[in-house]
Amino acid sequence: MNRKDVIFIMTSNNLDQIDKGIQNRSVLIDMNVPPINDWRPILPRVYENAGLPAPPDAVLDQVVQAGRGSARSIFSDIVMSVNQEVREKHETHLITLKACG
User: Fold this and answer.
1) In this structure, are residues 86 and 52 in contact, taking their beta carbons and an 8 Å threshold?
2) CB–CB of 76/43 below 8 Å?
3) Is 20 inside a domain boundary?
4) How far apart, in whole angstroms, are the C-alpha atoms of residue 48 and residue 83?
């Protein structure tokens, strides 16, 4: 493949099982799990963008720990939590309106 317009993106959880020749011809980017403290400034923004107060850091830390470093799992859990709070807030608002009218 003597092409300059092609990029191969490869992923593996088992780098030791990848042929050394392939490793030698590749740019290796290590994607280590960030520590919990690195998530703290990011996750509250999801709540803030939804107009909700963020839960305490201890609660967010539990979500990060449960996600085991998977950004997909962590953000999925946070987004589900935000969506649930928005639904509950909306339902409470509807109940209040029904009570008034």
Assistant:
1) yes
2) no
3) no
4) 12
Dump pLDDT digits (tens) for 50-80. 888 888 989 889 988 998 878 888 888 888 8
User: 71-100 and 57-67 are packed helices; what angle lies between their axes, rounded to 10 degrees?
Assistant: 130
Domain region containing 47:
33-100
Q: Look at residue 50 and tell me if it is in a domain.
A: yes
Q: Which two tokens stand for residue 18?
A: 């990848």
**Do 54 and 44 contact (CB within 8 A), yes or no?**
yes
Q: Which of 33, 56, 32, 35 is nearest to 44 (CA)?
A: 56
Give, as one character, the DSSP assignment of residue 68. Answer: T
- Asked if residue 92 is part of any domain, the answer here is yes
Per 3-state DSSP, what percentage of the chain is helix, strand, and coil (rounded to 5)? 60, 0, 40
**Mean pLDDT, the chain, whole residue set:** 83
Tell me whether residue 79 is in a domain.
yes
For the chain, how many structural domains are there in total?
Answer: 1
